[in-house]
């Protein structure tokens, strides 16, 4: 078991997408801005027994092997047309799986899980008639609760794989970096954002079916996956589904997303990019990880009584950039309630959408 104690939440094969057979990589610590040179890849984006025992690690390795194949084909061929329908679905599942498995994802969910645990503790104590009011107060102060965040994350990872196909209606392009600046990556390389709904701050807008969703996932310093809602953004790709990114400003924005999204480190594909990435870190004012996990409480009147409603969701990053290659003509209003892309055509929301079976996606790749 000791041989599998060091468990990676970003697989080593993904590091090799950027540095080839090199066993070391340079990185920048996000809390201090310190440059660390020639760090062993084996020790990166990993923790001791992060997921659990040897059997769990074996299961995750099996999934990694499955998801690696279509991602490698995309990196090599730089077009989604190289994949058949089943491979596209596996690639989408690999993207959602990678997003769900990181230390950053665990920290995001830990905030929500802890608040829910505290709430259930309060309910349990207050609903127990055998305690006096003084005893309830004492118990609330003395009893501590801590959720099993590792088990929760594993559940969410399973759910992420099952629901990955829900991204099948998104536009799918490969970004080809034509600038002198590299795409960098962090320890949470899959980034979700929603520029179309950037003004919505009181509920989640990063769900797999949410209108306006954008997903960015670099595959090497010159290549990246970009998924987007075609009803919200205008992306001009060539016949192979490729977008030539020639704006350094766009590359900077995508790299800042990696800085903001990761929990502890970003990685440098080349030694000569250290000064550039350090400047991004300074401009991002990134000195601590800010959890995206949120719980909002609302009070409503019902049958003469005040009821409390708790809404938990994942907030957007504090940095939500506008990308020139993915223009958005208008933004959703703060009072718009846009939940499911299937019910939204870019102009109006249909209350009763038709069942969703992804026929368009199968036609595109069969």
Quick tags:
366 residues; alpha+beta; five-stranded mixed β-sheet; four-stranded antiparallel β-sheet; 9 helices
What's this model, at a glance?
The protein has helices at 12-19, 54-77, 85-100, 103-126, 133-142, 149-163, 248-261, 274-284, 359-365; strands at residues 6-8, 24-29, 35-40, 46-48, 171-177, 185-186, 191-193, 214-220, 223-228, 234-235, 242-245, 265-268, 293-302, 305-314, 326-327. With 366 residues, it is of the alpha+beta class.
Describe the fold and architecture:
This protein has 366 residues and is α+β, with helices and mostly antiparallel strands. It has one domain. It has nine helices and 15 strands. It has helices at residues 12-19, 54-77, 85-100, 103-126, 133-142, 149-163, 248-261, 274-284, 359-365, and strands at 6-8, 24-29, 35-40, 46-48, 171-177, 185-186, 191-193, 214-220, 223-228, 234-235, 242-245, 265-268, 293-302, 305-314, 326-327. A five-stranded mixed β-sheet has the order 7-8-9-5-11, sandwiched between helices. The protein has a four-stranded antiparallel β-sheet with strand order 3-2-12-6, with helices on one face. α2 (54-77) packs across α3 (85-100), α4 packs across α6 (149-163) and α7 (248-261) packs across α8. The mean pLDDT is 90.
